[in-house]
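Sorry to interrupt, but I need a hand with the structure work. Could you write out one complete protein record for me, on any chain you like? Could you add the entry underneath, on a fresh line?
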Amino acid sequence: MSVERQQPRVAFQGERGAFGEEAAVALLGPGVRLVPRPTFEETFGAIGEGEADYALAPIENSLVGTIERACDLLLESTLVVAGEVVHPITHNLVGCRGASAETVRVVESHPAALAQCEKFFAEHPHVRRVVADDTAASVRRVVERGDPTRAAIASLGAARLYGGAILREHLEDHRENYTRFLLLAPEPRATAERADKISLALRLPHRPGALYRALGPFARRGLDLLKLESRPVRGEPWQYRFYVELQGSTEDEEVARALEELRGLSAEMRVLGCYPSARSLTDAKED
């Protein structure tokens, strides 16, 4: 078997040059085989179709919060979380050759990218935003059109890849801008030695105090709950599923007891994965 065939195939949302591509390389190394997919739905479906071994999905951004569509697909899918990476996001205004920031009247990009640049649009009310599926594809279209009144918000890498011109740097509302991506696998793997984070999907019975009681197993044991997000269940109006992140490992006896107690308090509970957090991976590289 060739070395190339041994490298994992990772699906990400967007075209080449997207932030997902950068995150995949940061997490798995430059040898990873990249599988661009145009939508989140197709990214999640790539493993089942045999097109990828893993999928990388953005779950949260430090400026705009949860990436809702990716979170919903995770809760609905059978994929499991095998790892994560936190990737710094720098947004650039990218135009075609010959364009300038002053000529731009329309800016297109992924909705999450547009939302991270609210100050730019507030300062330029004459600029119309256009929602697109992908930051990198937006650059490609802008360059292909050659229209100096149109620009995209995307990475420096996308601008270089498609021959775009950087019209303005750092459009993000704050320089401390990061997106956390989850690495998704088709089935659980053996718990990694450095696994210190757990993701859960949770549904609770509709009765007073249900959420309060569900948090008890963690509080009594001094376990750190990192994220709690409620998401509507499609097709069941006013029903909600929780996405939960917890510091700890399923190999830890106290954590295992807390999860077992939580299962008894829940209408539905699924461990989505136990994996090394981005911080523990950084520590491992430094070691």
